[in-house]
Structures are given as structure tokens and as C-alpha cells.
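REQUEST ID: PR-0412
SUBMITTED BY: lab tech R.K.
PRIORITY: routine
TASK: structure prediction, single protein chain
INPUT:
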Amino acid sequence: MKKCLIDSSSAILLYKSGLMQTLISTFDVRVGTVIYKKLTCSGYPGCEQFKKKFQGKQFEWRKKKMRRTAPIP
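STATUS: complete
OUTPUT:
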């Protein structure tokens, strides 16, 4: 399965549109530490569902600092 790195605003939009399960079934979804904290913070749309997805290992949380492999133009 291909890996997918997602940001918080995209994750929330996919959650609101009901397309999150499609993403999870298609990709191995990963997020960084800051995104994990945002998605599971009280007050954000879907925070309880995102907590369940992390606990159920549907999303992978990268605790290490991610390295950029290519320069940003």
C-alpha cells in the first residue's frame, strides 16, 4: 500500500466530506507530531474520531522529525 502524508486541514476536510474511510482504505496514512496534536485536540472537528483512528492504527503518527528529501522550489 502506498504511503500518504496528510496535513490537518486536508484531514478535517476529508472527515467532514465523509471521504476519510476511502483515504484509509487506499493509502497508508501518516502524520507528523504537530498534525497529530492538532487532530486530537479538543475543539477540532472530528477530534474523537481521529483519536480512535490513531488508537486503531488506521493512521500512523511519526514521532521522529521528518526529513525533507527534495528541496522546496
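NOTES: Strands lie at 3-5, 28-31, 59-61.
REVIEWED BY: pending
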